[in-house]
Amino acid sequence: MVNAMVVLGSNESVSGTIYFTQEADGSTTVTGNTYGLKPGLHGFHVHALGDTTNGCIPHFNLAGKEYGAPEDENQHAGDLGNVTIGDDAL
Questions:
Q1: Cα separations (Å) of 50 from 15, 46, 47, 74?
Q2: What is the pLDDT of residue 31?
Q3: Which residues contact 71 (CB under 8 A, 6 or more apart)?
Q4: What pLDDT, on a 0 to 100 scale, did the predictor assign at position 63?
Q5: Are 4 and 28 members of one domain?
Q6: Same-domain check for residues 30 and 44
Q7: How many domains is the chain partitioned into structurally?
Q8: How many CB atoms lie within 10 A of CB 76?
Q9: Hey, is 54 helix, strand or coil?
């Protein structure tokens, strides 16, 4: 099993924790909580390195593919699509 955790925090009062879990050679499960995001769609992607203190760097993209939605045939592994935040969000 492989596990990773991301702790979100910003100067815009957005916070949360995201967990990535993969069993052996299976698919990866992503779970977690976010706080302070405005209602609507928000892009959800993994960057090449975890430290973004000097700004966001390119998305995780080992295969060198074009940017695209997860359902697109030609898309990179770091682009996980959108997260919808409802009007009742914290």
A1: 16, 8, 7, 24
A2: 93
A3: none
A4: 67
A5: yes
A6: no
A7: 2
A8: 20
A9: coil
